[in-house]
Amino acid sequence: MPRRSLEEDFVRRLIISIFLIALLQGFGLLISLFIFLPWIERFLRETGSWKPYPGPEPVPRPMPRKPHSRSPNRGISLTDGLIFEAPKKLIQGAEALIKVGFRNRTGKSLRVSIDLSELALYGKLERRTLDLYLLPGEERSEYVRFVPSKVGKHALTVRVRSGPFMGKKAIEIEITGEKAGGNGLEALLSRYERVELIGEGGFGKVYRALRDGRWVALKVPHVLNERTGKLFLREVSIWRELRHGNIVKLHDANLTPYPYIEMELCDRSLEDLEKPLPAERVAEIAFEVAEGLKYAHSKGIIHRDLKPSNVLLRGSKPKISDWGLAKVLFESGTTTVTAMTPYYASPEQISPSRFGGVDERTDVWQLGVLMYELATGRRPFEGSDFVEVAGRIIMEEPRRPSELNPEAKPLEGVILRCLSKEKERRYGSVEELQRDLSGILGGKYREELKKSVGPSRSAYYAGQLFLLHLRLGDAKEALKYARDLLRYARGREREELEKLIEQIELRVEEGLPVPRELVEKGEVVVHGVGGNPSNCSHS
């Protein structure tokens, strides 16, 4: 009721109350009512009938909000973050791996649940839901096994939920009735526009293949049985998750229509290089291989089979290949322990009862064997068969590299420490190995930087010193050489380098570690600024 109406009602009631009291005193109750009731009624009609205060007006109830698919942070759609990657064609009855995950593009931690139940309508699915917890900016995914059963093209919906929010993504899959048979390899190769055989080894054949305008390497293993086929899928799924500049990128892998691995095409392997190499180049290769191993070890993954044919070169950049394939080869029965010559095997791989189990230091040993061979042109342990080579690995010490090549002297201490029989006497980690390699490389780079007269060479060595310390996590030294490199940067590269310097300065001031993302940015910037001048090129 309005404030004015309340005041008028109060005045009326006050006047009537005073009047009634006066009547009661003068005439008595009954006589007063009998005589003056008509007059009171007329008075009330004239002044307005009294009505009780009805109370506050009811507040309208809010309309229920419609459910929506927007995430709680800045309106970013959950659908945009959903990851669902399946082979272009699925084969009826053939197990396939489907990548399912989420990219958290918000500024908050998210707990998401991905619903795959519609996919289960078209085959046997390992799991129908995937629950993930992601930090801001984090990406996580897993591979889910799926055995297709219903032939045809199918449209389905994959849903993702986070609290009250929901997103959904329309997916199309195609399941064919094609079976892997005697001409399965022919069916596989027919998917590519051009195919050239470029190599063959114990694991299988390697082709150079063109597909959708991109050249790739196609590795086709020897026929696998059911048990090793599952092992093959499991091992390559681990490899597919490794994303690093010093690791060969795996594009695709499956068992149908024939077992295959489609991966990044590189130019050659360490096996193809003419040896021995200069000590500086050996140290550069080893440092970068260690960089890839460092990343894998941080994820709990050990290679176990480093050898020249498994370290490929794209340009001059080394990249580690064949993650987990040695295990598949051994389990497949296509080779035996006694038929394999273990030139690169560690003592613990030959005699675990005596030297303990395999761990990160196994990769350190194998990297030591690689360095020995690159620096001297010979392997540290030779022999005519498995027994002879294995016996020398666990019983004998290798010749000093400088005895075979005097120019290998700067690397001798590093190599021999890697080749210690007892794991405890080797480098405890590849980071520790990198620190010793950086001493060799840093000295060489600084010497060349002082001697450099042209801007191209100066930029190259300043860039290499910057990257060297950045990869070691030494932000203070990296900052020093980043500022040197700034002298040679122009245009967009200069802007990017200035931003990078600001980030490094902040980490120096706050004492923060150098993340891998910063190293990757540094590699891109150095490539743009310094390049690799022809008078600094490597084999």
Describe this protein's structure.
- By secondary structure, the protein is an alpha+beta fold.
- Among the domains are: 3-47; 78-176, Immunoglobulin-like, CATH 2.60.40.10; 184-264, 2-Layer Sandwich (Phosphorylase Kinase, domain 1); 452-536.
- Helix content is 42%, strand content 19%.
- It is built from 18 helices and 17 strands.
- Strand 8 (152-162) and strand 9 form a beta hairpin.
Q: What is the topological layout?
A:
Blueprint: H1 3-27, H2 29-47, H3 78-81, E1 82-85, E2 90-91, E3 96-103, E4 110-115, E5 123-125, E6 129-134, E7 139-148, E8 152-162, E9 165-176, H4 184-189, E10 194-200, E11 204-211, E12 214-221, H5 226-240, E13 250-254, E14 260-264, E15 268-269, H6 279-298, E16 311-314, E17 317-320, H7 325-332, H8 347-350, H9 352-355, H10 360-376, H11 386-395, H12 401-404, H13 412-418, H14 430-451, H15 455-471, H16 475-486, H17 491-510, H18 516-529
Summarize the structure.
The protein has 539 residues and is of the alpha+beta class.
Shape: extended
The main pleated sheet reads as: 5 strands, mixed
Q: Per DSSP, what share of the residues sits in E-state strands of 2 or more residues? A: 15-25%
Q: Using DSSP, what is the number of strands?
A: 17
